[in-house]
Design goal:
With 450 residues, this protein is α/β, with parallel strands linked by helices. A six-stranded parallel beta sheet has the order 3-2-1-4-5-6, sandwiched between helices. Helix 1 links the parallel strand 1 and strand 2. Helix 1 packs across helix 3 and helix 5 packs parallel to helix 6. The chain is globular. The protein binds nicotinamide-adenine-dinucleotide (NAD). Nicotinamide-adenine-dinucleotide binds next to helix 1 and helix 5.
């Protein structure tokens, strides 16, 4: 099938590259011409494992191309996947202006029938507005549009694998013809009939993904309800961690046992600095707004948000408890991305943490394996290290803000020798308190006996 992808950010690039990987002809466009320029010249503007393998191959095979001209991209596809950003407005509501702009552009440029697929995360009822917008903006052209919502559940860091091996595909449609078209697009994923670039064709056995056909409203609601639930889970675990700390229990033991209950599940129960990124914080806020507008009191979500924001305060209590005075002290920060295996720093707790350190008068030297270039744009005033060891140099505290795997395996003798004072405050409970103590460190983390 011929597919156009609008927006080449994290979701758009993974969607475009994976649709090409499973055999479709894909043309991608973006309003940011610099991104298209990078892509056309063979670069990849984001760090997402797997893209470096599939994008060049799909381009070489002629199945994936990039166009700065949106009209050319619209003309190229029978299905148009909208993957533009839906950032938060100052009041927390989702900003849908990019979706509106795309609707206008598609409606005015389309010369043949188009299936328009919402991949961006949007509040319920956006699909209805999108249908209306397409018909209003396209009233002179008489082109027929159908609309569907396929919310995206990929996780940055494992996005390619998540696209190709999803646990479920939620398909919000109005009619059977649209559902059939979408089933054809996703058939290789549903039948697992593609040579998997993640597992080199030897994918682990697993059941086929669920194909869940819903209304468009339900599909949109499923995405917001899922992300908000995950946010609640993390905030819940953080509260249990605070309690464990007071009572002398170990949060790791508690959540491990909780997670073995299939009704609870093990994921999203990690205590620490809390959640960030371009999904959970903004989706939680947008969901609260949607509930309020709909006359439903969903205050418990506001609590999850309040608890999450308070994690930086809890972190600082620990830092101050150890350092006494923060002003003037050299501090190393390990991790800037909102999670490991991505360069995405949007709403990253690590970035908030550095801002807070600067406000308190600390001198900061940070290291992240992938996110430093992006961080330099928003935090030009700090020093950046070439390695974790350089970040630790002369530091009176070393703070772990992102759980990159490489931070688990550092040469701790070298770190201890480099530091002015061997103090580690671990915002991700990445290391073992006992081991760090035996290595001669003063070590603080969340919800674990000192
Ligand atoms: N990042 C994730 O992990 C993730 C996961 C699931 C869902 N989502 C949702 O997917 C959507 C995109 O997220 P993202 O992380 O890819 O964002 P992003 O900011 O990385 O990418 C969005 C892209 O859209 C482009 N764009 C904006 N307006 C445009 C327009 N009018 N025409 C063409 N291009 C336009 C931007 O230039 C940008 O490149 C959001 O709604 C997000 O909530 C994101």
């Amino acid at each position: 099938m011929r597919i156009s992808v609008i927006g080449t950010g994290y979701v758009g690039l993974v969607t475009g590259a994976c649709l090409a990987e499973i055999g479709h002809d894909v043309v991608c466009t973006d309003s940011d011409a610099s991104k298209i320029q990078i892509l056309e010249s063979g670069g990849i503007p984001i760090y997402e494992p797997g893209l470096e393998k599939i994008i060049p191959k799909a381009r070489k095979d002629g199945r994936l191309s990039f166009r700065a001209n949106p009209a050319e991209a619209v003309a190229a596809g029978d299905a148009i996947f909208i993957c533009v950003g839906t950032p938060p407005l100052p009041n927390g509501d989702a900003d849908l202006s990019a979706i509106d702009l795309v609707a206008r552009m598609v409606a005015t440029e389309a010369r043949s029938p188009k299936l328009v697929v919402e991949k961006s995360t949007v509040p319920a009822r956006t699909g209805q507005e999108l249908k209306r917008a397409l018909s209003v903006y396209g009233r002179k052209s008489n082109v027929k549009f159908s609309v569907a919502s396929i919310p995206e559940f990929l996780r940055e860091g494992t996005a390619v694998e998540d696209f190709l091996h999803p646990d479920r595909i939620v398909v919000g449609v109005d009619d059977e013809t649209t559902e059939r078209q979408l089933r054809e697009i996703y058939r290789p994923v549903l039948d697992r009939k593609f040579i998997c670039p993640v597992h080199d064709g030897k994918c682990p056995d697993g059941s086929a993904p669920g194909w869940l056909v819903t209304t468009i409203n339900s599909a949109e609601l499923i995405k917001h309800a899922s992300n908000s639930f995950l946010a609640l889970k993390i905030s819940y675990a953080n509260m249990v961690a605070d309690l464990a700390e007071r009572l002398g229990a170990a949060i790791g033991e508690v959540v491990r046992a909780m997670g073995l209950d299939p009704r609870i599940g093990p994921s999203f129960l990690s205590a620490g600095l809390g959640f960030g990124g371009f999904c959970l914080p903004k989706d939680l806020q947008a969901f609260v707004h949607l509930a309020e507008r709909s006359g439903v009191d969903f205050t418990m979500l506001r609590e999850a948000e309040r608890i999450n924001k308070g994690r930086i305060d809890r972190f600082f209590e620990k830092l101050r408890g150890a350092l006494w005075v923060v002003r003037g002290k050299q501090v190393g920060v390990l991790g800037l991305a909102f999670k490991p295996n991505t360069d995405d720093i949007r709403f990253a707790p690590a970035i908030d943490l550095v801002h807070r350190l600067l406000a308190e008068g600390a001198k900061v030297r940070a290291y992240d394996p992938e996110a430093m270039d992006r961080a330099k744009a928003v935090l030009p005033q700090i020093d950046y290290a070439k390695s974790p060891y350089e970040a630790a140099e002369d530091a009176e505290a070393l703070l772990i803000a992102t759980e990159w795997d490489e931070f688990r395996k550092l040469d701790w003798d070298r770190i201890r020798e480099a530091m002015a004072r061997p103090l580690i405050v671990d915002g991700r409970n990445l290391l073992s308190p006992r081991e760090m103590k035996s290595q001669g460190f003063e070590y603080r983390s969340f919800g674990r006996p000192e």
